[in-house]
Amino acid sequence: MPGLFGALGPQRHLIEELRKAFEEPWGHGEHVVCETWGLGGHAFRPSHALTTDGGKSLFAVDGEPSLYSSAQEHAAGSKSLFERSSGNVQTSVDCKGSVAILLPDERKCFLACDWSGTFAIYYLATPAGLMFCSRQRPLARVLGLKPDPLGCLEFLKYGYTLRDRTHFQGLKRLLPGQILAYDDASKKLAIIENSVLWAEEAVQHSSRHTLIDDCWNALTEAVRASLVPKQRNAILLSGGWDSRTLFAAALAEVPRANLVAYCHGDMKSSEIDISRSLANSTGVAFQAEPIDKRSFDTDFLQSCFETTEDVRFPWFHVAGKLLAQAEAQSVSSGVYGEVLGGHYGVSMILGGASKAMAVGKALLGLRNGASQPMTAATTLLNDLHLKTLSRPFSLSKDFWDSLDSPTEAVKADLEWSISRLRQRGVNTADGLIEAFVTEHRGTQYINAQVRSCRSSLDIALPFVDRNLLRLACRIPIGDKIHNTLNKDILSSHASGMLGLPCAATLVPASYPVLAHEAGRVIRRILEQTRRKAFLLTDGRVGVSRFGWVNFEFLRRKQFLRALQEASTHPFWDRQAIGAKVREVESGIYRLPLDPLAMVFLANYNLDLMLR
To answer: Where does 3-150+159-193 sit in CATH, by number?
Structure first.
């Protein structure tokens, strides 16, 4: 996976150790290391991660493929990637990723994280100076950092950490849109918030049609900035709205011969049939792959972890490997399209009847998030995190008992995270919920899927484009909830995408949104009914095959046991984990296997991180 590392202040031997730990997965990299500073990175060839702009500064980048060419243009003076002013750095819309800027003569360093936080930078200020890296483990190994029990717990419980917490004590993560400014002479470190997402006034348009056109134009411009028409670009295509909308925009900007659509999962599912039909109807090459033993091979997972530090979604590692073999230069997905689709609002937090009521009110224009009290949003976020906070079965009681008031600690982290968004200027209940869900679940968990492809090839994410994201954040949740806006955009600019159904809703995409929601309920009932029949008949009646998820093969194989045996950290309750494996192998465990598989993969991921 591409990335960067660097230091300002520490002695050379420490910087060299960090360089070696960073470059270990590939055996090489680009770097400059001197007595008290160093900077380097890694990029897929022919791109370069390390650049100088005429000797004034040295900078390294980590992001979309376009970022590497923009860095070269910045060095040549033909494009501005960033500008310095008053002890700060401002990145341009062309900075589609993260950047580290080193000014050795001035003994200053700046780190800038993109506004989505997709391309992370981890850092630690020690008495000797600043050290940073796009992966956690090289820093932890070099500095001998101990695990942060609360960070580990948050990772396992939620799929993300709160505030700037990581897996290790003292190590911090630069958050979406933040700029770090470090002065080695004074040893002063400052964090500047540059993002204005969800802090701007709601968008005002003269008509729905104008809003639709503005969104389409912003999306196609983002696609032009992210994808290279002359190269082979892969699109991770599903039966949902986000990838369908992205696919339509890609068709408008990239020759069909240079596109390939990829889908994975249950090969007999409606979702793969829909994805195949979408690709075939447009003349785009299509590739479908099952989720099978390749995704649960511990040797494969360990090799992928060394570059990405995330193996929670190993089928995306498989996708990256296969697409690279098929000579694709980059792969894109619909991640962060959930903002335009209105999925990262209150409906993401609620469940059951409460969720249906919230969605219905928004669709009918009865709910105005701008007038809702902020305390309501805070209460929802507190309930989401604290009501479910209990010891995971896989964690040992000794570990749980070692935590000092975990509920209070998580609550403090949550309050810190909410306060940061409020200080940015997020001042509506809907905005606060959408900002929080996007920058936590979206950035750290959902985006980890496509980031996993970076073990083999570059990723390009048009929905992360700053201009498009700013527009999407300014659209009231009622104007976009549950893909009402996606539907209108496609109806106006790519109506051919609406003839096929959505996998989650069963009805053609052209149907009214209320019909989609009814279809969603019917699908859920059918799935539950078929699962009960599957269990009662010992598998003679098959499970439903609407969505891509089907992990039933794990009941007959030893993959969960292999993950159990490979996870050796003292954190684990090995007896409880072993009992769960035996339940699966003996047929006692009657629940769907995909949630359990995700638990085992997250456990193994944490185990690899802490070795």
So the answer is: 3.60.20.10
